[in-house]
C-alpha cells in the first residue's frame, strides 16, 4: 500500500497589491506549518517525495513542515498544482514512480479538498482549512480515481 498525504498550505497573508502567488504565510501560518511536520512525525509518516505548488505560501509551508520531519526529502515544484482541479492533481500523482511509498502533495483549495473527497468518496463537509492535511492509503499511484483510496487520518491546526 502507498500513502498519500494531501496538505493545504498554512494561513497566508492578504497583502494589497501583492500577486496571489507571492502571498507569504502569516506568523500563525508559520507556527502551524511547523506543527504539521511535528504531527506527521508523531504519526510515523515521512514523505519519500514532495510535490508542491510554486506559490510562496505552499513552498514556505512545505519547507517549515519538512524541517524536522524529512529535510532531505526531494521537493519538486509543480506549476500545475496551482489552481488545479482534482483530475489534474490525479494525473500528476499518477506519474509518481512506483518506488515512492509515501507522497506529500502541497497545494490549494478547492482542488486539494475536492481531491481527498473524490479519492475517498467522502461526503463530509467539514471543510479543509489552511494547514489541514489528510492521509490516504492507496493501492498505487497510476490510474487513481474515485473511491481508490481510504482516508486513514485527517488533521487541522485546531485539532491540537
UniProtKB/TrEMBL annotation:
Instruction: Give coiled-coil spans as residue ranges.
Output: none
Task: Fetch the SUPFAM superfamilies from UniProt.
Answer: Phosphoglycerate mutase-like (SSF53254)
Q: Which CDD domains match?
A: HP_PGM_like (cd07067)
Q: What is this protein called?
A: Histidine phosphatase family protein
Q: Which InterPro entries match?
A: His_Pase_superF_clade-1 (IPR013078), His_PPase_superfam (IPR029033)
